[in-house]
Amino acid sequence: MESQLEDGSAHEWAERWMVTRSDAHAQRRKKAFRDRLAKADKKLNDLKSKKKESAAEFLARAEKIVKYHKVDDAISLKIKKSI
After folding, report:
1. Is the separation of the CB atoms in 48 and 65 below 8 Å?
2. How far apart are CA 1 and CA 11, in angstroms?
3. Is 55:81 a contact under the CB 8 Å cutoff?
4. For 69, which of 3, 36, 77, 82 could close a Cys bridge (C-beta 3.0–4.6 Å)?
């Protein structure tokens, strides 16, 4: 690689990158994610609207659960009113 400084001088260097992967670590992370996802799913399924609660307030409570369990990239929420 080469880099040129403001004074016009150039510096060169070589880099070597080594990437490693741990299957055991990947499995632990996957299990932790599935556990968080299951807990969030259970709490969302048990969530009931409160009296005189607006749809926006209910959505905010649901979003709080999703963010708390750090699964907001995996779960998207929509509110559908039923009569």
Report:
1. no
2. 8
3. yes
4. 36
Q: Using the CB atoms, write b or e for 32-60: b if 16+ within 10 Å.
A: eeeebbeebbebbeeeeeeeeeeeeebee
Tokens of 6: 């403001």
Residue count of the chain, please give it.
83
- Assign 3 to helix, strand or coil: strand
Read off the tokens for 5.
């400084």
- For the entire predicted model, the pTM comes to 0.70
DSSP string across 11-58: EE----------HHHHHHHHHHHHHHHHHHHHHHHH--PPTT--HHHH
What pLDDT digit, counting tens, does each position of 20-74 carry?
999 999 999 999 999 999 999 999 999 998 999 998 999 999 999 999 999 999 9
